[in-house]
Amino acid sequence: MNGHDRSATPAALTPDHHADVSGGWLRASVFGAMDGLVTNISLIAGVGGGGVSRHTIVLTGVAGLIAGAISMGLGEYTSVRTQNEQVAHEIAKERQELERHPAEEAEELAAAWIRRGLPEQLAREVAETVGRNLDEAVRVHAQEEMGVDPTEVPNPWLAAVSSFVCFSIGAMFPLITFLLGFSQLWLGLAVGGVGLFAAGALFARFTARSWLLNGLRQLLLGALAAAATYLVGTLIGVATS
Fold it and tell me: At 50, phi and psi to the nearest 5?
């Protein structure tokens, strides 16, 4: 049985048996949350290591949250939109080639399938059939030649909002204790560490990775960044005291 349930319905017969990987929100969310956590944990560790007051830590952390969230949102929107515009430009070139040289384009597509092991005659017949529908030909050629589907490009607004919101949430974690009136640096960093572990564990559910290992990996990476900035903050604080 190899651990599989043979009585289960085949995935091919189940609608939407794959997750949506084209929307652009997951990468932006993961990047935003992790960047928010690591950035503000490191920022707070650095200024806290320099011996500043709770008020200064809060001010620094809030400023880092706002600036980082806006920067992440704008960056995601610009990068995704630029990528989409590049894809659109290449698709337009491909459409033009299909309109001008349909036979040569069909031969190019058939050659690609033949290299993959499809019988020569069948590959040419399928390529010629696809070429009779210009829109479908454009889509198939784009997938074969560029590895993209022009009907499934990421949404720049979705990526921007996902990044902005998740960065803000992540950056808030190490600030929570200071906003509640506590002044201990270790407590704020500990809460930030909990956020790192939780985010890593949560995002692991979208993959086959262990939630425990993923959470610990993010915690370790964040701890290394915080240790580095804490050391710098301590050294600068001592030097200027």
Answer: -80, -5
Question: How many of the other CB atoms lie within 10 Å of CB of 78?
Answer: 13
Residue 105 near residue 137, CB atoms below 8 Å: yes
Q: What is the mean pLDDT of residues 19-46?
A: 84
Output Rg (C-alpha) for the chain, integer angstroms: 25
pLDDT value of residue 18: 44
Which of helix, strand or coil describes residue 116?
A: coil
- Nearest partner of 226 among 168, 185, 172, judged by Cα: 185
Pure H helices in the chain = 25-49, 54-100, 102-115, 120-131, 134-146, 156-172, 176-179, 185-203, 211-240
In angstroms, the CA 61 to CA 177 distance is 12
- Cα 64 from Cα 44, distance rounded (Å): 9
What pTM value is reported for the model? 0.81
- 88, 164, 220, 204 alpha-carbon torsion, rounded to 10°: -60
* The pair of three-digit structure tokens given for residue 69, joined into one six-digit string: 């969230």
What SS3 state is found at 21?
Answer: coil
Confidence of residue 128 (pLDDT cuts 50, 70, 90): very high
C-alpha distances (whole Å) from 81 to each of 4, 36, 88, 153, 159 are: 42, 22, 10, 10, 10
Alpha carbon distance 214, 196 (integer Å)? 10
